[in-house]
Structure to design on (338 residues):
């Protein structure tokens, strides 16, 4: 990082925090309004607000809940990515890359096959199943990445690649033994989509995400210290193992909650925190809320492209984020190598 954590902590003021939060909140509000008006079917905003036409249904029952879900999902992925990058002291860390999303997807598929995917299970059991899968994957990754009592970030990244491969193989096995309708739903869900939405779903996912945000926000100062290294954090009085467990659990909750409803959407947690860190510094007290707002906006715009680029044919939003994130990951990898 070009700016040290100590410097960014020192220069964070309430005025700067308020200014950045206000600017990003305004940009998020503009994003909601602008993307709500974009679609294969043009709408009359005045008629939609009056509630007397089909435009009202399109705007308030189809587009707006989807946009709000995109804000929550993208924001959660952005915050989870920022927290993992601070924990592992590696800008390449991201839930999709290190295997946390794979574990969440495996837990979600198991839940889907065991109890079915109905509006009730989608609101209650599937987020819990995905959270359990994400938490188990995180615990396994930390165990594999810990050598002689120290967490090695690059070893953990390699373990994440292996865990992703194993999770993918298990998901394909489960998909092969499912019936036709379940298999079709699993494949479409795994590609990443915000198509299934309702205000109730947005509210429930928002509650899960709020819990994860509260945990990571509580640990923001500790994440600043952990980014200096384990030994430095220990000398400053931080219980490194306990702080890491709490932060990993908060990240797993965020990832599990959003994967349960949107499937695997990659690279939002890689691109958004990295760009935010370059622009705003690495103080997690500012970086975490900034990553939430910026991640939500990024995913909403990506989903707008996915649902409008080919007219009436809709692309999975995970395809759009992968097409943007893949080249960015290669660039970041080469930059780190240099």
């Amino acid at each position: 990082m070009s700016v040290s954590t100590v410097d960014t902590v020192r220069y964070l003021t309430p005025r700067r925090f308020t200014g950045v939060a206000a600017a990003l909140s305004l940009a998020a509000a503009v994003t909601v309004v602008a993307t709500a008006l974009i679609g294969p079917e043009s709408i009359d905003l005045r008629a939609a607000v009056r509630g007397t036409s089909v435009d009202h249904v399109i705007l308030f029952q189809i587009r707006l809940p989807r946009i709000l879900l995109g804000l929550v999902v993208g924001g959660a992925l952005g915050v989870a990515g920022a927290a993992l990058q601070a924990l592992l002291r590696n800008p390449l860390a991201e839930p999709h890359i290190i295997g946390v999303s794979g574990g969440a997807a495996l837990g979600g598929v198991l839940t889907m096959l065991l109890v079915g995917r109905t509006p009730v299970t989608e609101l209650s059991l599937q987020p819990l199943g995905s959270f359990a899968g994400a938490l188990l994957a995180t615990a396994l990754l930390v165990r594999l990445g810990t050598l002689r009592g120290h967490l090695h970030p690059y070893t953990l990244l390699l373990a994440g690649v292996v865990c992703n491969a194993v999770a993918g193989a298990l998901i394909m096995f489960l998909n092969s033994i499912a019936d036709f309708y379940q298999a079709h739903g699993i494949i479409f869900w795994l590609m990443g989509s915000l198509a299934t939405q309702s205000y109730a779903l947005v509210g429930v996912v928002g509650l899960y995400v709020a819990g994860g945000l509260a945990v990571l926000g509580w640990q923001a100062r500790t994440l600043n210290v952990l980014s200096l290294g384990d030994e430095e954090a220990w000398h400053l009085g931080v219980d490194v193992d306990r702080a890491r467990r709490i932060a990993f659990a908060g990240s797993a909750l965020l990832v599990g909650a959003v994967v349960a409803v949107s499937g695997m959407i990659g690279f939002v947690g890689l691109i958004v925190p990295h760009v935010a860190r370059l622009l705003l510094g690495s103080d997690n007290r500012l970086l975490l809320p900034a990553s939430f707002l910026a991640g939500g906006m990024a995913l909403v715009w990506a989903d707008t492209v996915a649902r409008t680029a080919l007219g009436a044919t809709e692309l999975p939003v995970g395809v759009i984020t992968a097409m943007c994130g893949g080249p960015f990951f290669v660039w970041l990898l080469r930059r780190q190598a240099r």
Remarks:
- The CA atoms of residues 113 and 179 lie 10 Å apart.
- Strands lie at 146-147, 150-151.
- The first strand starts at residue 146 and ends at 147.
- The longest helix spans residues 54-88.
